[in-house]
Amino acid sequence: MQYKFRNEVRNMGKNILIGGAWPYANGSLHIGHIAGLLPGDVLARYHRAAGDNVYFVSGSDCHGTPVAIRAKQENRTPREISDFYHGEFTDCFQRLGFSYDVYTKTSSAEHRSFVTEFHRKLYESEYIYEKEAPQAYCQDCGSFLADRFVLGKCPRCGKEARGDQCDACGTVLEPEALVDPVCASCGKPVGFRKAKHLYIAISRLERQLQALVDAHPEWRKNAAAFTNRYIREGLRDRALTRDLEWGIPVPREGYEGKTIYIWAENVLGYLSASRTAAENRGADFGALWGDDAIHYYVHGKDNIPFHTIILPALLLGSGGGWHLPDRIVSSEYQTLEGRKISTSQNYAIWVKDLLARYEADSIRYFFLANGPEKKDADFSWREFVHSHNGELLGGYGNFVNRSLAFIEKYLDGTVPDGKADPEIHRQIGELYASVGRLIEKGSFKDALERIFDFVRSANKFFDARQPWIARTADRKACEDTLYQCVQIVGNLAVLLAPFLPFSSEKVCGWLGVTNRWEKQSVPAGHRLPEVEILFRRIDKAAIEEETEKLKAIL
Q: What are phi and psi of 350, to 5 degrees?
C-alpha cells in the first residue's frame, strides 16, 4: 500500500525534487540508514518554508535477491517479507518526522507500470544490446545471485570483496573475477552459468557522464571523487535483466521468466514516485523533470555510483530528455561505538528500538549535528546523552523554558510591550540568509552550528540583562529583555523547524508564529498557553546499560 505524508506548505515557487535512497525491505532500519537519509527531510522542510514547490519522495526497495533470500530463510513469500518491512519503515519514518510527499514501494502497481513502460522504450535505444555472459549461481540456495551477493578475494589486493566492488582498494569487479567466490547468504561456493541478457552500454556514455560531474562542483567531495575514479578506471556495461523470479518482468519477447535487474528499476522509483506526487496535487510532472527544476539525491556512500553513474545512464540512454542530478548529498559511513555496524551479527542499533525510548527530535539532532556528513562518524551512547543533555536541553531548551517560564510567573503569561534590540534584530535576519544558504549547499552541521552559536549568545544576553533583578529594580528594562527573548524564541523555532520539527511545532503554536522562512514577530500582548518543558534530561545510568549490551554482542 502506498503511503502519502502530508505536504505542509502549498506554494508556487521553484520545483524541487528531493529523492531519498530506497532501503532494502529485507530487514529493519538501523542508525546508518537514518544518518544518511535525515538530510533529505531537512532540505524538504526548508524548501517548503522558503516557498518552493517540493516533491520529497522515496520508498522501500522490495525486489531482488536480498528479499528473496530472507523470504526463503523464513519460509515466507518475498511479497510477505517486503510488505512487512515496508510497513515497519513507514512507521519509523513517520515517527521520526520525515515529511515525504510520497513514500511508496517498488512492488506497487504504479512503480511496476512506470518501469515497464520506461524499459520498453529504453530497449529501442542505440545503447541497448544483447549478450550471453556468465552469471553467478548458488546450487545450495537454488538461485542466481546479484553481484553484491557474491563474496571472495579481490584479484588485485587479495582482501575480502563483493562481486561488484572491493571496498579495500576500490576496484570495480565482476563476480567471476573474484578468487574463491562464495554465496553471501549460505557461504557455499558458487558456480557460473551462461545466460542471455540485455545490457546498457554505459561505456559509450563516458563523455556525457564526465560532463555531468564536471558541471557540478557543488557535489559532495566523496561523490565527485568516486565518480571520477569509476570513469577513470573505465566504465563497464551493465546487465539490465536477470534470471530471478521476484521482480518486474522484462517487457521483451524472448525474455519470459526473467526480471529487470534491481539496480535498473529501483532508481527509477524517483520518477515513478514523483509522478504519483505530481498527479496527487494536479501538477505538471513534465515541469518537475524539466530544465528549470532542481534535483537533490540524498543517500549513503555505498549508493554513490547508483546516483551518479547508473541513474544518469538510464536517463541518458532512454533519450527522453530527463533532468539529470543536480546536487548529490552523499554521507560517509556511520559506525557504532568505534566499530562497523554488522546486521548479520546483530551489532546495530535499530531505529524502532531507538524511537521506543527517546524523542524523535533528540535522535534527529544527534545525527544532524554529529553525523557522517564529511567524514565517517561514530555513534556512542555517551555522546548521544551529551548531545541531548548538553546543547539541545542545556542550551536551546533552557533558553526557551527560562524565557517563557519567566513571562508566565512574573508577567501574567503575556508578552510585554518592549523594545527590540537592533543588533539582535539584524542578527536574526542574517541567520535566515546564512542558514538557508548552508542548507542548500548540504552543509547541515555548519547550519546547525550557526544557529546554536546564536542560542549561546541568547543565553548570555539573558544572563547579562538579569531580568530577575530588573523586574523590581527597572521594570521597563525587564520588559524589554523578555520581549526580545520572545522574539528570539519565535525565530529559533522557525530556523530549527527543518531540523527539530516536533519541538518547533510546539513553540510556534505557543507563540502563534508561522513556519515561513522569514523573520517572525510575536506581538506584545500575546497570551501564552500553558507551556511545558521542551526537552527532558536523559538518565546516564540507562545509557551504561545500552553500552554493556553492545559489548556483550561482541
A: -85, 135
Q: What is the DSSP string of 509-533?
A: HHHT----SS---PPTTPBP-----
> CA 205 from chain center: how many Å?
28
Indicate the burial class of 446 (C-beta count within 10 angstroms; 0-12, 13-18, 19 or more): middle
Nearest to 388 by CA among 369, 403, 401, 371: 369
Q: In sequence order, which ranges of 7-152 are alpha helices (DSSP H)? A: 31-49, 65-73, 78-95, 109-122
Amino acid at 271: L
Three-state secondary-structure class, residue 410: helix
Residue 430 CB partners (closer than 8 Å, separation 6+): none
Q: Give yes or no for a contact between 63 and 146, defined as CB atoms under 8 angstroms apart.
A: no
Burial class (CB in 10 A: 0-12, 13-18, 19+), 52: buried
> Angle at Cα 364 formed by Cα 67 and Cα 517, nearest 5°?
120
For residue range 433-465, list pLDDT tens digits in order: 999 999 999 999 999 999 999 999 999 999 999
Q: Show Cβ contacts of residue 465 under 8 Å, excluding neighbours closer than 6 positions.
A: 477, 481
Q: How is residue 303 annotated by DSSP?
A: G
User: Contact, 207 vs 307, CB < 8 A?
Assistant: no
Domain annotation for the chain: domains and CATH numbers = 15-145+190-331 (3.40.50.620), 359-554 (1.10.730.10)
At 2 the pLDDT is 43
Q: At residue 201, what is the residue type?
A: A
Q: Amino acid letter at 431?
A: L
Q: How confident is the model at residue 550 (pLDDT cuts 50, 70, 90)?
A: low
List the beta bridge partners of residue 259. Answer: 242, 249
CB 246 within 8 A of CB 63: yes
Query: Cα–Cα distance between 112 and 106 in angstroms, integer?
Result: 7
DSSP 319: T
Neighbour order of strands in the sheet with 191-200:
143-144, 128-138, 191-200, 238-239
Report the SS3 class of residue 41. helix
Q: Which of 39, 36, 35 is nearest to 443 (CA)?
A: 39
CA proximity to 371, closest of 433, 452, 446: 446
In angstroms, what CA-CA distances link 208 with 205, 226, 308? 5, 16, 11
| Percent with pLDDT over 70 in the chain | 97
